[in-house]
Amino acid sequence: MKAIGLIGGMSWESTVSYYQIVNRIIKYQLGGFHSAKVLLYSVDFAEIEECQASGDWEKSADILASAAINLEKAGADFVLICTNTMHKVVPQIQQKINIPIIHIAQAAAEELIKNNITKTALLGTKYTMQQDFYKEKLIAAGIDVLIPDDNDMEFINHVIYDELCLGVISNDSKAELLRIIDKLSDRGAQGVVLGCTEIGLLIKQEDTPLPVFDTTLIHATKAAMLAIGK
What we know:
A 4-stranded parallel β-sheet has the order 5-4-6-7, with helices on both faces. The chain has a 3-stranded parallel β-sheet with strand order 2-1-3, with helices on both faces. The chain has helices spanning 12-30, 45-54, 57-74, 90-94, 104-114, 126-130, 132-140, 150-162, 171-186, 215-227, and strands at residues 4-8, 38-42, 78-81, 119-123, 144-146, 191-194, 212-214. The longest helix has 19 residues, at 12-30. It starts with a strand and ends with a helix. By secondary structure, the protein is of the alpha/beta class. The chain has 2 domains: 4-103 and 218-227, Rossmann fold (3-Layer(aba) Sandwich), CATH 3.40.50; 104-215, Rossmann fold. Strand 1, helix 1 and strand 2 (38-42) form a beta-alpha-beta unit.
């Protein structure tokens, strides 16, 4: 079994889900007392969020690259960054390590293709929704990407940073996110990518008729299957 390197803590609320999912998949696949070989480097999210807010992406890349280097030294066979937004700096991190980074947007694209989705809604931080580093992976796979309007985008960003990352689960916010998903469905979205590892804490498949693609689940499942060579 290969060792999975996780760069977590962004936020730790969703990193917990990664650890649970990889172990559940390994147990289901191998049975008995099997569990995943996991190395976790959990960063201080306050440092990363400060870099995001100030636009200092190079500093955040250095922080995460240091984490990735330590995971490689500790014996990780590949690395997952347990957040969507920080995949913006994957190229800088990959240059500094010799093991692969499993890209969350690429994993999402593969799952969308598998489910015959050609037009998807994308929810995430404003960085993920507005910038190209994430959407380009989906577009390259032949998938059209729909994002919310500016007001809805700001609201989603508020829910992520001011609620979900702090462990706050609000039914009112959930209802508003479902309204936004409905609007994107009316625009032709065949599915919705939860392009923030926290949104899956709030929105589940049973909440909407639109197919939900939870990137935390997709990413962690891919890691588990790679670890056992499947």
